[in-house]
Amino acid sequence: MVLQAPYTPAHLRELRRQHLVEAVKEEFDDSGGTYGSSTIWIRLVGQGWRVSVNAIAEIMSEFGWSRGRYADGGGWPGRGNGRPPRTSCGGTSPVPRR
Length: 98
Known about the structure:
The protein is mostly helical and about 100 residues long.
């Protein structure tokens, strides 16, 4: 008879990810929705987590937790995303100055 451990490596991975998702959500909520993946990564590493900034960015993207001004998915201004480019004169000039 072979006894099986109560926790398999895959199960432990899932538990760790669940705890990481909860930690990311907590930091994001505590910031009022303003922290991005880099800032959340810095704070989690300070708490002792060993995780990459890309893993946090993936989690935030998966759950739709994006920060700040461009959270509507429109991208950055002036990059062909349908928004008018920024100009130095407040948008009144027909030709943007770069």
